[in-house]
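hiii so um. not sure if this is the right channel but i have a protein structure encoded as tokens and i wanna go backwards to a sequence. like what aa goes where. can anyone help
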């Protein structure tokens, strides 16, 4: 009895130690499938016009400081679970996987993600319209 109880305690302690590691080991693709695919779809085409495509439309965004800043401050990115490093890795994976234009872009860093998290948008739809109108 005592032995099985101790076994259960050890097993749950081992699980508690391993579980965060398992989360940390999620690949960017796994994160995308878990947290983003419901809206942005498997191939990043989204559900236009409500959910923008992560393919062509990125050309307006990754080429300018304002556009990159916008990408860091949309609700999906601000609320993405994971460390700033992991979310930066996710964003870079998205650009590499879906963006159809010139893929020569400056990768997002953890510092970029942290800076976005400090400044969530009040009205992302309006800000997006204004941003794209300027292009
Ligand atoms: C509930 C639906 C939803 C989910 C889930 C979601 N997004 Fe979005 N995403 C949107 C919408 C809608 C926009 C357009 C801007 C806005 O209105 O927020 C957007 C815009 C974006 C943009 C900017 C692209 C553009 O053209 O505006 C990026 C980058 C992005 N999302 C990344 C992500 C990532 C990464 C995740 C998962 C961690 C995610 N999103 C999860 C709905 C979603």
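sure thing!! here u go:
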């Amino acid at each position: 009895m005592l032995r099985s109880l101790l076994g259960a305690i050890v097993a749950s302690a081992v699980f508690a130690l391993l579980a965060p590691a398992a989360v940390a080991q999620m690949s960017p693709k796994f994160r995308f499938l878990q947290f983003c695919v419901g809206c942005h779809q498997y191939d990043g085409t989204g559900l236009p016009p409500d959910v923008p495509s992560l393919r062509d439309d990125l050309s307006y965004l990754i080429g300018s400081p304002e556009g990159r800043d916008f990408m860091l401050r949309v609700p999906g990115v601000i609320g993405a679970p994971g460390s700033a490093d992991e979310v930066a890795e996710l964003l870079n994976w998205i650009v590499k996987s879906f963006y159809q234009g010139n893929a020569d872009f400056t990768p997002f860093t953890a510092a970029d993600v942290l800076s976005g998290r400090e400044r969530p948008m009040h009205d992302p739809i309006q800000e997006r319209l204004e941003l794209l109108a300027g292009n």
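oh and The pocket of heme C is lined by residues 35-36, 38-40, 50-52, 57, 61, 71, 74-77, 80, 90, 94, 124-125, 128 (CB under 6 Å).
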